[in-house]
Design a protein that fits this description.
This protein is α/β, with parallel strands linked by helices and 332 residues long. The strands form two sheets. It has an eight-stranded parallel barrel with strand order 1-2-3-4-5-6-7-8, surrounded by six helices. A two-stranded antiparallel sheet has the order 9-10. Helix 7 links the parallel strand 6 and strand 7. The longest helix has 19 residues. The structure holds flavin mononucleotide. The site of flavin mononucleotide (FMN) has 26 residues, from strand 8.
């Protein structure tokens, strides 16, 4: 394949799939299931915010990986001034020699240099060519191209444009596609565009292992693409949520005062942090059993999710559909 699939072997991945990092959803059971299935399982460091928790989780995963030798795991770090734990979490991940790191936003320089010192790989979330250039020039090992329709902070550009554009501008930097992929055919389609694999979130929310209540999992199964809307109310940047009573009550757009506070140089840092903490609290309530709050992040691929399955079964289906689609297209 054109686009450096060797890195997948280096990362010990049997199949080109990443179980994408999902705030509040990713947990230890998902990580271990993803590793057993031979893929890359990634969690956001922010899922383990209590003192000592992240280091303990990394020790457990390092031991699990040494014992089982299948698949691999990684950590997502949000490298932004409004994430007060960014530097602390980066230090812990580098000390524990996390094999794979996905950075979101900000300047990933220290993480890239720190991970390269022990042979770790760093991919950066990108939604456009400007941020991609910054990450490329800092020496990242690859891009996670986050396109339209993704769960979480979806990008503004379609993958059909973003992937080939990244390949054209940065031919030596591998691309993993994220957004709207929930089937083996979807995976093959992004490979045709030049990606080496896909990072999949929404499909795995409707998994037996996901750390959220059944109502959220069932909402993924029941929602279609037109039920997914973007809101800036949760974090200040557009985030995909299921349109339900809670989302309607919260609203989709920040008001004029919130927008002003987010732009004013004197207030923007603390105000953005405040908005994000408030958003996190709302999301945290929504994953608990029987909670009235139902602010559920999901991407448009919820349209293609019809049942709750185990993570390993989901990966099996991806593999089967991928093979079948290759046969249908006459690819040997
Ligand atoms: C519930 C949820 C939470 C997410 N949280 C994060 C996060 O903490 N960090 C991150 O980089 N991406 C996050 N994402 C984005 C995913 O890592 C991934 O890019 C996205 O889910 C891919 O699109 P898909 O949902 O259509 O498969 C989240 C996505 C979802 C659905």
């Amino acid at each position: 394949m054109r686009n450096n699939p060797d890195i997948l072997k280096e990362l010990n991945m049997d199949f080109p799939l990443i179980l994408a990092p999902m705030f509040l959803v990713s947990n230890m059971a998902m990580m271990k299931a993803g590793m057993r299935a031979g893929i890359m399982a990634v969690f956001p460091s922010l899922n383990f915010r209590k003192e000592g928790e992240l280091a303990a989780v990394l020790d457990e995963l390092n031991t699990y990986h040494q014992e089982n030798k299948s698949g691999n795991y990684g950590v997502n770090i949000i490298v932004q001034k409004s994430n007060p734990l960014s530097a602390k979490h980066a230090k812990i991940c580098l000390e524990k020699e996390v094999p794979f790191i996905i950075t979101s936003l900000g300047n990933p320089k220290e993480i890239i240099e720190g991970a390269h010192a022990y042979g770790g790989k760093v991919f950066c979330d990108v939604t456009n060519l400007v941020h991609a250039k910054k990450c490329h020039d800092l020496g990242c090992d690859g891009f996670i191209a986050v396109g339209q329709g993704a769960g979480g902070h979806a990008g503004p550009n379609p993958l059909q444009v973003l992937i080939p554009a990244l390949r054209e501008q940065f031919p030596d930097t591998p691309v993993i596609a994220a957004g709207g992929i929930a089937t083996g055919a979807g995976l093959l389609s992004v490979q045709a565009l030049g990606a080496i694999g896909a990072s999949v979130g929404t499909r795995f929310i409707a998994s037996e292992e996901a750390g959220v209540n059944d109502a959220y999992k069932n909402a993924i199964v029941d929602s279609g693409m037109d039920d997914i809307v973007m809101t800036t109310k949760l974090s200040g940047t557009p985030c995909a949520v299921i349109s339900n009573e809670s989302a309607k009550k919260m609203g989709l757009k920040q008001n004029a005062f919130e927008r002003w506070m987010s732009k004013n140089p004197r207030t923007k840092k603390w105000f953005k942090t405040l908005i994000q903490i408030r958003g996190m609290k709302k999301l945290e309530k929504s994953i608990l059993p029987n909670n009235y709050q139902k602010l559920w992040t999901a991407g448009k691929s919820s349209e293609l999710v019809h049942e709750v399955l185990s993570c390993e079964e989901i990966v099996k289906r991806f593999k089967k559909e991928w093979e079948e689609t290759r046969k249908d297209l006459g690819i040997i």
